[in-house]
């Protein structure tokens, strides 16, 4: 790979653009702290990026280390050539972006992606990670020895030897031999055995599997042993089974015997029960026959006897009372009937008749008194009228003349004065209205006329001007002239019309109202006058019919007549009252006569009327007394009713008693017969109670319930069926039930004991068998599985060991190849720079030993302490260069970035070292050297001017744009 | 010509744990087993056979739980069940201590065999006439645990006592034994016999148990001389095909006896053995799909048992150990055999590669050792070592997956 151009847009103190000549060794010289080393770091950063992980770099991350102190830009652009391809790498550390572009302007960034957002372009191009790159290709003065760490642990962690192995391998596999070995070792340490649920060393897994297999084998043997052990219990089970059968047989025999005994007992019980049932049925039949007496009340017999006695006594009392009443009433009624015969004339009268007769007598007296008073009053009034000069004759004449008039004429005469008054009053008012209306109309017409006249005048003038204009037109006069006439005429006509219209509308409403008022006044005046003339005509006619000369005489008599009538009014009223009294007197008289005729006749005068009325009232009192006879004996009726009620009550009670006893009262039978019947019933009731309360329940108790009887029968049937058709226990000596029970209990206990023992044994056997069936094959299978697992684990271990051993042998061969190269190349380089090292031997972990020119051999650690600083730096530089050379692919050699590595070398060795770089390595690798020893390098160039001129590109830092 | 019919069933192995099946499905298989026995009796009744012949291994081991034992005893207590002849096999050998064959012990545990069940309790040939068939004798011998399993039941000395029993012209042999030359892999040899011995034997027909796959020996003229009915149900994934028993129909009388057998299916599950090439499969799912495709092609049913031998090369980085849930759900049981699967390393390319890369040199070194080794076990180890090493170089990880590799 060749570095072509680096542009730094602020990277630490570095800023500017550097162009490298890949064909030459680029030498950059400047003073310290001017950014020379930063340039090399920038190349590395452009290739690999900068790590910002604070966990890895707790003090200062590389990203922060190179962050510029000023400004916001923090970016690099590196142009390289790799395998003929030119690439531009742009990294903006401020924004965290990376871009890779090829020479065709295509972005190929994604080709260099590793992980999520890492773009280690250098790793893709060179095959080394950043640490490996910096250990071999990026040589810092103070970090030369990092290539081979002093500590073994650090060396083992070093991955450079793996790279050397890869490089030794002609085909770069995914994994090198060392890594493959590590994987194999890890696999052996992390072996997973699912049978054990174990992950760990395969040896441990094997041991555990062996142990588990042994354990399972033991368990299987235990199971088999357990199974063998149950043969005893099984034999016992068989024996117990026989014992159980024997016990059952004995128990069955005892049971049969017991059943026979029980059957006999049952038969006896059933027989007794049948007898008791028959007795019960007899009692129940008797009770049923006496069921009718069940409702006879307590003491019914005594109660009925007492009630019948009371009834008979009450009947006797009632009969005595009725006899006494009848005698007394007959005597009193005879005396009163004698008095009653005296008032036979008024026998048909009533108390109302007596009252009317008394009222007529009083009315008769009142009318007579009133008639006397009124006649005296009339005489007195007539004398008063005569004192006032009123001629009674004149009065009679006037009355005769005017009393015969009909209502129309009387109305006409009475209305004359009113008609005249109304005529005169209304006529005046109407006349006034008419005059006012006329005046109003006239005034309005006058105003209208004031407008109409000029209006008509203007209209006439207008028409005249128009006619004149028309004439002028016809005559062909000057247009101005007839036009003026026509227009003037039109205007005048217009104004005239306006005036006329205004005149016709002036006070129109007021004029209409005045005209209406005028018309109304005129109409009413005409009506008044018409009515007056009609009245005058009628009056004239009346006067003429009454024999008057004119209406005036008529009206004079009428007025006199009216006045005299007004003054003689009290006389008239008194006369009228007299007439009324006379009418009343006649009516009373007639009624009195009529009534007296009903009661024996007589004069209709008040005294007679009052006497008849007195007889009527006396008759009424007699009648009341006769009626009173019954009332006076009313108390006897109450006593009778009480006695009757008592009789009825006693009778009802007696009947109720009979009824309650279930007997029906027969009126044909004497009460004594009923009392005997009831006594018989009461005795029946007592018997029934005895049956129900004592005899029947006792009998029922003695009889078995039907269900129990059925059960007993069933048991008996069952026993008979089991022991043989109803026979009692067979011949021979039968044991007592107690003995049988005792024997049965003993046998049952024995059977229970056997069964319990059998159950226990069976459970034990079943459990062993169940476990054997369940676990034995399972254990065998487990053994089989573990055996297979063991085979697998051993085979795995063996396979891994074989693979590991084979790879190890091959890895040694690889190591041999890269170690030999390094041994040879480092020695050559050291010889060229004048170091007196005869030989180097590199180990597997890149550790080395040194053999000096004098044959002394030092290990790595000792050599580091024995050699001078310059010699040691030369040694490490040689190692780095050799490794870089070895790791560089043939078609893509590593660029070497060297930072003042000859600072500790003397001039000769520095010169030799530079020559080695320029002459030897510069041919294949691009080399960039930075140094602060300007003078020394200039001096060295003077010593080999041709070499430096043709092979060195001088880059003076001062000419570039470092940040100052 | 008279005809006699038998139903020959064997190797029920009642009480078998079926450890190879997923635990949740074992009860189902045990139920299948019981159903097969019930079906045997049912078929015997329906087909009107004269007897049921059970030549051994009715039980799987010397002791089964009481429930299973009681089931077996009750299974024959069906009205109409024909006589049953049982010879104890190597899994349930006869002994005085046997829970099955010792009447007292059986009674102590689960009752007694019905009267129509006859157990042969002698290792010597003993005859028993079929009830109601005086012309047919069943000769049986039991397997006894403490007797050498190499004893030859059909050796001349063993059969010299076999004579027509009570004049019965037809003699049937019932026993548990191994027909030489036909033993399935992994099968224990018990009571071996040769085909020649069969031909020389005095039996008209030999009903044999022990082998779990059905087979028969022709007696000439299309007549069957000997038959294994195989296991009544498949007891392992290696027992391929359908399982059940044989209805044996014998015509005898004038002329030679003619025996025919007809398969009677008792197991609703068929065992399939398939092969699937998984070369090129990029993921475990793809492997499963290849297997599923093979199953479809073979017409496997949901209730079947399937074993699939995978072959070919598993793509780099693909880890496949067992079928996925979806594939498992396609059958009652699916097993994959990975012994034929190899990682996708081109060994020939390594052989041809002449570079001295470490990986190549490793491969060549291992292949050289492999070529030189003749012992298959050692070869398998070397092959595993080769692939582990190549995994280390190529994959950067090692998983213990090559222990199943076989030839």
Q: What report would you give on this structure?
A:
The complex is a heterodimer of chains A (964) and B (407). The longest helix of chain A has 96 residues, at 737-832. Chain A is 70% helix and 8% strand. Chain A is flat. In chain A, a hairpin with a 2-residue loop joins strand 1 (2-11) and strand 2. Chain A has 964 residues and is of the alpha/beta class. Chain B has 407 residues and is α/β, with parallel strands linked by helices. Helices cover 27% and strands 25% of the residues of chain B. Chain B has helices spanning 26-47, 66-75, 103-110, 156-159, 195-200, 284-298, 325-328, 347-352, 358-372, 376-394; strands at residues 2-8, 51-54, 84-86, 117-119, 126-130, 133-140, 170-176, 178-179, 192-193, 205-209, 215-220, 223-228, 244-252, 258-265, 271-277, 305-314, 333-343. In chain B, strands 4-3-2-1-13-14 form a six-stranded mixed β-sheet, with helices on one face. In chain B, strands 5-6-7-10-12-11 form a six-stranded mixed β-sheet. In chain B, helix 9 (358-372) runs antiparallel to helix 10. The longest helix of chain B is centred in the first third of the chain and has 22 residues, at 26-47. The model of chain B has no long low-confidence stretch (mean pLDDT 90). The chains are: A alpha/beta (964), B alpha/beta (407). Chains A and B meet through helix 7, helix 9 and helix 22 of A and helix 2, helix 3, helix 9 and helix 10 of B.
């Amino acid at each position: 790979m060749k570095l072509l151009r680096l542009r730094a847009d602020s990277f630490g103190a570095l800023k500017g653009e550097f162009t490298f000549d890949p064909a030459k060794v680029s030498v950059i010289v400047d003073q310290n702290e001017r950014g020379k080393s930063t340039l090399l770091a920038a190349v590395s950063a452009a290739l690999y990026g900068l790590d910002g992980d604070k966990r890895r770099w707790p003090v200062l991350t590389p990203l922060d280390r190179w962050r510029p102190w000023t400004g916001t830009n923090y970016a690099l652009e590196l142009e390289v050539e790799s395998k003929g391809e030119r690439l531009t790498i742009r990294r903006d550390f401020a924004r965290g972006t990376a871009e890779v572009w090829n020479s065709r302007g295509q972005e190929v960034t994604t080709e260099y992606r590793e992980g999520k957002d890492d773009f280690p372009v250098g790793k893709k191009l060179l095959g080394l990670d950043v640490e490996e790159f910096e250990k071999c290709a990026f040589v810092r003065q103070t970090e030369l020895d990092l290539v081979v760490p002093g500590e073994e642990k650090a060396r083992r962690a070093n991955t450079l030897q793996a790279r050397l192995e890869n490089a030794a391998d002609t085909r770069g596999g995914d994994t090198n031999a060392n890594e493959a070995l590590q994987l194999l070792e890890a696999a052996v340490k992390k072996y997973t055995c699912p049978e054990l649920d174990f992950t760990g060393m395969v040896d441990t897994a094997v041991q555990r599997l062996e142990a588990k297999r042994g354990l399972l084998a033991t368990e299987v043997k235990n199971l088999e042993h357990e199974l063998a052990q149950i043969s005893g219990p099984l034999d016992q089970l068989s024996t117990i089974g026989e014992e159980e059968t024997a016990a059952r047989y004995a128990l069955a025999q005892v049971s049969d015997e017991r059943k026979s005994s029980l059957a006999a007992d049952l038969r006896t019980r059933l027989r007794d029960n049948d007898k008791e049932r028959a007795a019960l049925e007899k009692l129940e039949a008797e009770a049923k026959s006496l069921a009718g007496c069940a409702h006879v009340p307590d003491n019914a017999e005594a109660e009925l006897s007492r009630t019948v006695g009371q009834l008979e006594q009450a009947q006797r009392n009632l009969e005595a009372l009725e006899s006494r009443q009848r005698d007394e009433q007959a005597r009193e009624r005879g005396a009163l009937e004698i008095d009653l015969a005296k008032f036979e004339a008024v026998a048909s009268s009533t108390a109302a008749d007596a009252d009317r007769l008394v009222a007529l007598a009083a009315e008769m007296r009142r009318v007579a008194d009133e008639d006397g008073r009124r006649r005296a009053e009339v005489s007195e009034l007539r004398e008063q009228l005569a004192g006032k000069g009123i001629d009674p004759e004149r009065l009679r004449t006037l009355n005769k003349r005017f009393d015969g008039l009909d209502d129309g004429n009387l109305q006409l005469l009475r209305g004359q004065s009113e008609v005249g008054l109304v005529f005169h009053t209304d006529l005046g008012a109407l006349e006034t209205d008419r005059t006012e209306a006329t005046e109003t109309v006239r005034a309005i017409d006058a105003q209208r006329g004031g407008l109409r006249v000029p209006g008509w005048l203007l209209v006439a003038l207008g028409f005249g001007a128009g006619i004149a204009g028309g004439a002028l037109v016809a005559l062909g006069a000057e247009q101005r002239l007839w036009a003026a006439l026509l227009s003037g005429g039109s205007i005048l006509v217009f104004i005239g019309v306006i005036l006329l219209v205004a005149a016709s509308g002036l006070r129109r409403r007021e004029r209409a109202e005045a005209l209406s008022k005028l018309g109304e006044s005129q109409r009413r005046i005409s009506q008044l006058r018409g009515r007056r003339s009609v009245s005058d005509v009628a009056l004239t006619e009346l006067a003429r019919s009454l024999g008057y000369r004119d209406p005036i005489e008529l009206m004079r008599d009428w007025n006199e007549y009216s006045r005299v009538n007004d003054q003689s009014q009290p006389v008239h009223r008194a006369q009228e009252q007299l007439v009324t009294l006379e009418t009343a007197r006649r009516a009373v008289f007639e009624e009195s006569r009529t009534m007296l005729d009903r009661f024996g006749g007589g004069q209709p005068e008040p005294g007679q009327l009052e006497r008849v009325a007195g007889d009527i009232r006396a008759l009424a009192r007699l009648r009341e007394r006769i009626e009173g006879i019954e009332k006076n004996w009313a108390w006897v009726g109450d006593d009778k009713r009480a006695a009757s009620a008592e009789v009825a009550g006693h009778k009802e009670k007696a009947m109720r008693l009979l009824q309650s006893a279930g007997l029906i009262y027969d009126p044909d039978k004497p009460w004594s017969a009923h009392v005997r019947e009831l006594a018989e019933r009461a005795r029946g009731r007592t018997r029934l109670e005895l049956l129900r309360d004592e005899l029947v329940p006792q009998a029922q108790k003695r009889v078995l319930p039907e269900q129990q009887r059925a059960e007993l029968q069933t048991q008996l049937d069952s026993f008979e069926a089991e022991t043989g058709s109803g026979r009692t226990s067979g011949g021979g000596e039968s044991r007592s039930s107690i003995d049988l029970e005792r024997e049965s209990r003993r046998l049952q206990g024995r059977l229970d004991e056997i069964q319990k023992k059998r159950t226990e044994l069976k459970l034990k056997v079943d459990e062993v068998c169940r476990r054997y069936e369940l676990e034995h094959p399972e254990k065998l299978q487990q053994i089989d599985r573990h055996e297979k697992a063991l085979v697998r684990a051993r085979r795995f271990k063996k396979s891994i060991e074989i693979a590991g051993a084979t790879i190890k042998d091959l890895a040694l061969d690889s190591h041999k190849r890269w170690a030999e190269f390094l041994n040879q190349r480092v020695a050559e380089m050291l010889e060229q720079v004048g170091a007196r090292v005869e030989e180097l031997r590199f180990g597997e972990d890149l550790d080395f030993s040194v053999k000096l020119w004098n044959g002394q051999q030092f290990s790595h650690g000792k050599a580091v302490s024995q050699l001078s600083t310059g010699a040691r730096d030369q040694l490490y530089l040689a190692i780095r260069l050799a490794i870089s050379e070895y790791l560089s692919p043939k078609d893509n050699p590593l660029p070497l970035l060297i930072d003042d590595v000859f600072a500790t070398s003397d001039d000769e060795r520095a010169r030799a070292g530079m020559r080695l770089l320029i002459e030897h390595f510069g041919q294949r690798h691009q080399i960039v050297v930075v140094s602060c020893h300007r003078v020394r390098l200039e001096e060295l160039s003077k010593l080999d001017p041709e070499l430096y001129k043709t092979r060195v590109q001088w880059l003076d830092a001062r000419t570039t744009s470092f940040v100052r | 010509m008279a005809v006699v019919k038998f139903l020959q069933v064997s190797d029920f192995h009642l009480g078998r744990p079926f450890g190879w099946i997923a635990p949740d499905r074992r009860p189902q298989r045990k139920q299948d087993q019981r159903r097969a026995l019930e079906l045997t009796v049912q078929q015997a009744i329906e087909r009107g056979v004269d007897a049921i012949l059970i030549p051994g291994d009715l039980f799987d081991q010397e002791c089964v739980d009481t429930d299973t034992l009681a089931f077996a005893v009750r299974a024959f207590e069906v009205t109409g069940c024909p006589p049953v002849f049982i010879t104890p096999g190597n899994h349930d050998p006869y002994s005085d201590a046997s829970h099955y064959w010792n009447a007292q012990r059986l009674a102590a545990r689960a009752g007694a065999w019905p009267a129509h069940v006859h157990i042969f309790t002698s290792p010597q040939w003993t005859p028993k006439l079929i009830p109601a068939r005086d012309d047919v004798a069943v000769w049986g011998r039991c397997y006894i645990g403490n007797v050498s399993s190499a004893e030859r039941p059909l050796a001349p000395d063993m059969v010299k006592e076999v004579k027509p029993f009570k004049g019965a012209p037809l003699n049937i042999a019932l026993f548990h034994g191994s027909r030489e030359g036909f033993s399935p892999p992994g099968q224990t040899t018990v009571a071996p016999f040769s085909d020649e011995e069969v031909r020389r034997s005095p039996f008209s027909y030999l009903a044999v148990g022990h082998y779990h796959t059905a087979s028969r020996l022709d007696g000439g003229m299309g007549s069957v001389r000997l038959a294994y009915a195989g296991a009544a149900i498949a007891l392992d994934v290696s027992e391929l095909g359908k399982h059940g028993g044989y209805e044996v129909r014998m015509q005898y009388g004038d002329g030679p006896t003619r025996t025919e057998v007809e398969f009677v299916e008792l197991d609703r599950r068929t065992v399939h053995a398939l092969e699937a090439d998984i070369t090129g499969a990029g993921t475990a799912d793809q492997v499963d799909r290849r297997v599923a495709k093979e199953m479809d092609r073979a017409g496997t049913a949901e209730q079947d048992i399937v074993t699939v031998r995978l072959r070919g090369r598993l793509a780099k980085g693909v880890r496949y150990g067992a079928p996925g849930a979806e594939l498992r759900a396609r059958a009652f049981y699916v097993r994959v055999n990975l012994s034929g699967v190899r990682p996708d390393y081109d060994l020939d390319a390594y052989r041809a590669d002449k570079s001295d890369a470490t990986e190549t040199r490793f491969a060549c070194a291992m292949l050289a050792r492999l070529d030189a080794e003749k012992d298959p076990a050692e070869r398998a180890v070397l092959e595993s070592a080769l692939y582990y090493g190549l995994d280390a170089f190529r994959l950067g990880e090692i998983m213990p997956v090559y222990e199943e590799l076989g030839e």
